[in-house]
Amino acid sequence: MTQRIDLHLHTTCSDGLRTPSEILEEVRSRKLAAFAITDHDTIDGFLETGELLKEGDPELIAGLELSCSAEKGDLHLLAYLFDPDNARLLEALNDFQEKRNQRGRTMVQRLNDMGITITYDDVLQAAGSAPIGRPHVAEAMHRRKAVATYDDAFRQYIGDRKPAYVPKANFTPAEAIDLIHAAGGVAVLAHPMVGGAVDRIEELVALGIDGIEALHPDHKQHQVANLKEIAARFRLIWTGGSDFHGRGGRCGSVGSEAVPIDCLQQLRLRSSQKRGSD
C-alpha cells in the first residue's frame, strides 16, 4: 500500500477547531507517514505538535500558510521545510500578529458603533492562542447571540465589503516568497483553483515560487490534472493536503486527499537544490 501524507492542516493556533494534540491523534489513526501543520501566519501549532511527538509517530514537517495581498487580490502561500528558529521569519510573524490584533480591535469598534455589543475580550476568548482573525470575531458574535449563525456574521457584517470589514495588512507575494526562502524553506501556492489564484502562476514563477498545491478538496479531478500539467510546464513541484479546519462543510478531513509520500521527497529535493544554488 502506498504511503500517504497530508501537507495542509490547521489547528486552534490559527482558525482550526482542533488542538494540536487532537490533530496528532487524527494523524496517528489515519496511519499517515508524514504531515504538516500549516496554521495561518503562525508556527505555534507546529511547535506545540512537535513537543507531543512520540517514537514511531508520523513525521512532522515544518509548515506555515502565509496570507498575501496584491492589486490582483488575495492568495495564500504554503511554506515547508524552513528553519523555525530563523530570526527574520519570527520577527515578521510577530509583527504580523500585532497588526492582526489591531485589525480585530478596529472591527469590534465598528460593530459597537453599529449597536453590536461584543468586546475585544470576547474575541480574544474565541481566538485562544491564535492570531486574531475574522473567524474569531464571527465566533464571538455568535456566542453573544448578535447573529443567528457563525456564517451570518460574515454575510451581514464582516465579510468582504460589508460594513464592519477591515482589510488585512498582509504580506505581498514577493515578500512572502523571499521570507520563506530566507528561512531555508520551499514556497507553494495554496489551492490555486480557489479565488482565481491559478491565473497568477506565471507572476509567481517570476517571483521564484517553487510549487503549487494540486490535490485539495476544492479541486475537481480535471483541475488536478491541469495543475499537474502546469507544474510540469513551469518546472514546479506539486503537493496536496486536506486543508483541514474541523468546521463542517469546510475543506476535507485529515488524510482525505490521496497525497503520495513522493510529494515530500520532491519538496526535499527542491529544498536541497535551492541550498545548493545559494
Folded structure, characterized:
This protein has helices at 20-30, 44-52, 87-113, 120-127, 134-143, 150-158, 173-182, 201-207, 221-233, 262-277; strands spanning 4-9, 34-37, 59-61, 63-68, 75-80, 186-189, 211-215, 237-240, 259-260. The protein is an alpha/beta fold and 278 residues long. It has two domains: 4-86 and 171-277, Metal-dependent hydrolases (TIM Barrel); 92-158, Orthogonal Bundle (DNA polymerase, domain 1). The strands form two sheets. Strands 4-5-6-7-8 form a five-stranded mixed β-sheet. A four-stranded mixed β-sheet has the order 3-2-1-9. Helix 1 (20-30) packs across helix 2 (44-52), helix 4 (120-127) crosses helix 5 (134-143) and helix 5 crosses helix 6. The longest helix has 27 residues, at 87-113. The chain is globular and about 55 Å long. The termini are far apart.
Summary, kept brief:
The protein is α/β, with parallel strands linked by helices and 278 residues long. The chain contains 10 helices and 9 strands. Helix 8 (201-207) links the parallel strand 6 (186-189) and strand 7.
List the helices and strands and how they pair.
Layout: E1 4-9, H1 20-30, E2 34-37, H2 44-52, E3 59-61, E4 63-68, E5 75-80, H3 87-113, H4 120-127, H5 134-143, H6 150-158, H7 173-182, E6 186-189, H8 201-207, E7 211-215, H9 221-233, E8 237-240, E9 259-260, H10 262-277
Parallel strand pairs: 1-2, 2-3, 6-7, 7-8
Antiparallel strand pairs: 1-9, 4-5, 5-6
Helix pairs in contact: 1-2, 4-5, 5-6
